[in-house]
Design brief:
The structure holds two protein chains of two kinds. By secondary structure, chain A is of the alpha+beta class. Chain A is globular. The N and C termini of chain A lie far apart (49 Å). Helices cover 33% and strands 16% of the residues of chain A. In chain B, the strands form four sheets. In chain B, strands 4-5-10-6-7 form a five-stranded antiparallel sheet. Chain B has a four-stranded antiparallel sheet with strand order 11-12-13-14. Chain B is an alpha+beta fold. Chain B contains 13 helices and 14 strands. Helix content of chain B is 35%, strand content 24%. The radius of gyration of chain B is 19 Å and the shape is globular. Classes of the chains: A alpha+beta, B alpha+beta. At the A-B interface, strand 4 of A face strand 1, helix 2 and helix 6 of B.
């Protein structure tokens, strides 16, 4: 059986009709049509599917979509400004070489945004700890950490 | 994943009504959904989501103790100054569950009722004499955490019973505590071996010691021989070593991908020793970082190896 729900994603309401077992990630990707959040491990280990739910980072692969009914979701697509101007973190990832294949990048950016929202000036250890639920398997973490540090220093 | 029906309860009564009709509760989903997607166990046919039930939220102080609503997240516990100052082992444990995403979604109620013998918070809750309130459509009962777990993934709770809160009485003055975990990385880890120590000092003498071992037996449990080795002692290195060896002797670990039984047994003594030493440091008023585990592995602050 399908149930009606409204997902508020990046400030816009999306009515959906979904089965109880559907996870938030699959509904975001297939019903809402936002494919920025990625399915990596599908086991809540890698953080590629991370989104903000009511401002807090959660792994959307292991969260039931129906439980997000009526709540505020921010995906990677919601970070840039309405005019397409990149979020300072996105620009810093480009400037610092924090992107290679890009698969982990949406989750990394969501994690980094959540960190800076609660702690505007983290040190390197705090940055590494905050990003340790996000796995990168290609470019390495140095550029990513540098990018977050660069934004933190601007604040 | 199955799950044919779904309802979001607005109150405990609504949740209990759904559970009486066969539905199973879901809060953060960090165990249920992951387990279903990984093929461990399908989602229950009927789900009742309890995340909107406001009376199950929050952490409050009561008579110097702590009452944790079933929906209190691991992040909520770490953010509680009372938990950090007076129930420090619980904060140590809550701070290293999963990643920050897990800690924002995962709840203490779900963590307890999932009943993993490797769960981080189990040892601290048992050592702090936590009591679970179980409610059903037909009644209410209270069960000490020490009596709740019956095996891996199993508790004494009946299918229609919902854990609504955990009550921890006030620790005695002079109490320090620590939860230490053997881990291969700092986050997204599950205890290979864990140890909890809650130590109450009276002057230089150990008045009361609580020691529990994690991921070393089918259920997390206290080790009476380890506690006896410390009780009445002067908290000397010899007493700490004797207690740690007793904890290792009481362990019945399994071999799996994360460690062999022999390795776990050997590490049981090390982790227990570090947990006790840190609990004693804290009982004496010394500061030690929360969570304790990363600092213990780096052997910073000395004295804990």
């Amino acid at each position: 059986m399908r149930y009606d729900a409204t997902l508020n994603v990046n400030g816009r309401a999306y009515p959906v009709a979904i089965e109880p077992g559907r996870n938030l990630l699959s509904v975001l990707r297939s019903e809402v049509g936002l494919t920025g959040a990625k399915e990596g491990c599908d086991d809540s280990e890698c953080g590629a599917c991370m989104v903000l739910l009511d401002g807090q980072p959660v792994n959307s692969c292991s969260y039931l979509a129906l439980q997000a009914d009526g709540r505020e979701i921010v995906t990677i697509e919601g970070l840039a400004g309405a005019d397409g101007e990149l979020h300072p973190l996105q620009q810093a990832f480009l400037d610092q070489g924090g992107v290679q294949c890009g698969f982990c990048t949406p989750g990394m950016l969501i994690s980094a945004k959540a960190l800076l929202d609660r702690n505007p000036s983290p040190d390197e250890d705090e940055i590494r700890l905050a990003l340790s639920g996000n796995l990168c398997r290609c470019t390495g973490y140095s550029g990513i950490v540098r990018a977050v540090q660069a934004v933190a220093e601007q604040r | 994943m199955s799950a044919e029906s779904y309802t979001a309860a607005a109150s405990v009564e609504e949740a209990l009504e759904a559970m009486a009709a066969g539905a199973r509760p879901i809060a953060g989903g960090t165990d249920l959904v992951v387990g279903a997607r990984g093929g461990k166990a399908p989602l229950p046919d009927a789900l009742v989501a309890i995340h909107r039930v406001s009376e199950l939220r929050g952490i409050r102080e009561q008579d110097g103790g702590l009452v944790l609503g079933a929906l209190a997240t691991h992040a909520d516990i770490v953010a509680s100054s009372t938990a950090c100052e007076r129930f420090t082992a619980l904060a140590d444990a809550s701070a290293i569950v999963g990643s920050h995403a897990t800690r924002n979604a995962g709840t203490i109620g779900g963590n307890v009722m999932n009943a993993s013998p490797a769960m981080e918070t189990g040892g601290p809750l048992i050592c702090f004499d936590a009591v679970a309130t179980l409610r059903s459509a037909s009644g209410i009962r209270r069960v000490a955490l020490a009596d709740l777990f019956t095996g891996p993934g199993r508790t004494v709770a009946e299918p229609g019973e919902l854990l609504t809160e955990l009550a921890l009485p006030a620790p005695k003055d002079g109490t320090g505590s620590c939860y230490a975990r053997l881990e291969y990385r700092r986050q997204m880890e599950i205890a290979i071996v864990g140890a909890t120590a809650v130590v109450t000092l009276d002057g230089g003498t150990v008045r009361d010691a609580r020691i529990a071992i994690t991921a070393l037996a089918p259920t997390i449990h206290r080790v009476a021989e380890a506690e006896q080795a410390l009780n009445g002692s002067d908290a000397s290195d010899a007493a700490v070593h004797a207690a740690a060896d007793a904890a290792a002797g009481a362990s019945r670990p399994i071999s799996d991908v994360r460690g062999s039984a022999d390795y776990r047994r050997a590490m049981a003594a090390v982790l227990t020793r570090r947990a006790i030493s840190t609990a004693i440091t804290r009982a004496r008023g010394g500061r030690f970082p929360i969570p304790a585990s990363p600092a213990l592995h780096g052997a910073v602050n000395g004295g804990a190896a």
